[in-house]
Amino acid sequence: MDQTAPVTLLGSHAPLPTDPKDARLECFPNRTPDRPYWVHLDYPEFSSLCPVTGQPDTCRLRICYVPYRLCLETKSLKYYLASWRNTAAFNEDVVNRLLDELSQACAPARMIVRGDFSARGGIRLTAQASLPPGMVENPFGL
To answer: Domains in the chain, please, with CATH?
Structure first.
């Protein structure tokens, strides 16, 4: 991502991308880069596809990050997350790929991505990935 590019999706009527590779994650400058603070984003309607059955997997997706120089712009994030609807991936892979792509876009000081997936076969799966790896602090309070 070109971190100097202006925010373009906000205020536009662009169509939703159909694949995460076609989505554009946009950022804007953090006005207080010297003050660490958490940004909590909650997306209760995330969906992707099971790579084996092709059935939809849904989850409550929570993203928490401490911005450094850039903050994620939420409309572009909404478009990016919606683009996953037709993407086949295992739940654990989804969470790890989201962490990789979101952290690449905004280069945060810290980030946690957590997916609380709906039960399949009577089992609920929660996957959580963090940056830096092994970070034990959990801003979700869980």
So the answer is: 27-131 (3.30.1130.10)
